[in-house]
Amino acid sequence: MSRRKDWDTYFMDIAYMASTRSQCSRRRVGAVLVQGKKLLGSAYNGAPMGVPDCSEAGCMLVEEFEVKLVEGREEMVKKQRCIRTIHAEQNLLLFTDRSDREGSTVYVTDQPCWTCANMLANSGVVEIVYHRPYPKDKEKVTEMMVTRGIRFRQLADYAPPAGTISEVTN
């Protein structure tokens, strides 16, 4: 007899399956909305409907500078970020109803960035569960979730389904 997956694993598996629809070569992200044990919606990151995505038109990169602590010293680091895509969490909010989000949980493959965390904080959800960390915004996002009273947790020991994980680039 096979062992049933726990609910966290089941819903995170679905988020990873959603991420396979993404055409982003830099980071494929999936998100699902769950109320109780009922799946209410899924989404992934990508260009707006009807607009060429990164696989067709290339990434739309902008350069940013970030202060990082390197061996005890602050250093200015140049990073590139693609702005062509709408994040999975944003698409999830766009394509679900507020009434469905009230009291719900979002499972997302990657810890939300600051902008997505802000949007989720006002969306009605009461819990956010993620797998891969996003160190850049971790502290401030975690602090905001605590302040807002939203459960925010990482599934650190989770293993995504075969064939769903892509190399993450910054």
From TrEMBL:
<dbReference type="InterPro" id="IPR016193">
    <property type="entry name" value="Cytidine_deaminase-like"/>
</dbReference>
<dbReference type="GO" id="GO:0006220">
    <property type="term" value="P:pyrimidine nucleotide metabolic process"/>
</dbReference>
<dbReference type="InterPro" id="IPR016473">
    <property type="entry name" value="dCMP_deaminase"/>
</dbReference>
<dbReference type="InterPro" id="IPR002125">
    <property type="entry name" value="CMP_dCMP_dom"/>
</dbReference>
<dbReference type="InterPro" id="IPR016192">
    <property type="entry name" value="APOBEC/CMP_deaminase_Zn-bd"/>
</dbReference>
<comment type="similarity">
    <text>Belongs to the cytidine and deoxycytidylate deaminase family.</text>
</comment>
<dbReference type="GO" id="GO:0005737">
    <property type="term" value="C:cytoplasm"/>
</dbReference>
<keyword id="KW-0862">Zinc</keyword>
<feature type="domain" description="CMP/dCMP-type deaminase">
    <location>
        <begin position="6"/>
        <end position="155"/>
    </location>
</feature>
<feature type="binding site">
    <location>
        <position position="116"/>
    </location>
    <ligand>
        <name>Zn(2+)</name>
    </ligand>
</feature>
<dbReference type="InterPro" id="IPR035105">
    <property type="entry name" value="Deoxycytidylate_deaminase_dom"/>
</dbReference>
<dbReference type="GO" id="GO:0004132">
    <property type="term" value="F:dCMP deaminase activity"/>
</dbReference>
<feature type="active site" description="Proton donor">
    <location>
        <position position="89"/>
    </location>
</feature>
<feature type="binding site">
    <location>
        <position position="87"/>
    </location>
    <ligand>
        <name>Zn(2+)</name>
    </ligand>
</feature>
<dbReference type="GO" id="GO:0008270">
    <property type="term" value="F:zinc ion binding"/>
</dbReference>
<keyword id="KW-0378">Hydrolase</keyword>
<keyword id="KW-0479">Metal-binding</keyword>
<dbReference type="InterPro" id="IPR015517">
    <property type="entry name" value="dCMP_deaminase-rel"/>
</dbReference>
<protein>
    <submittedName>
        <fullName>CMP deaminase</fullName>
    </submittedName>
</protein>
<dbReference type="Pfam" id="PF00383">
    <property type="entry name" value="dCMP_cyt_deam_1"/>
</dbReference>
<feature type="binding site">
    <location>
        <position position="113"/>
    </location>
    <ligand>
        <name>Zn(2+)</name>
    </ligand>
</feature>
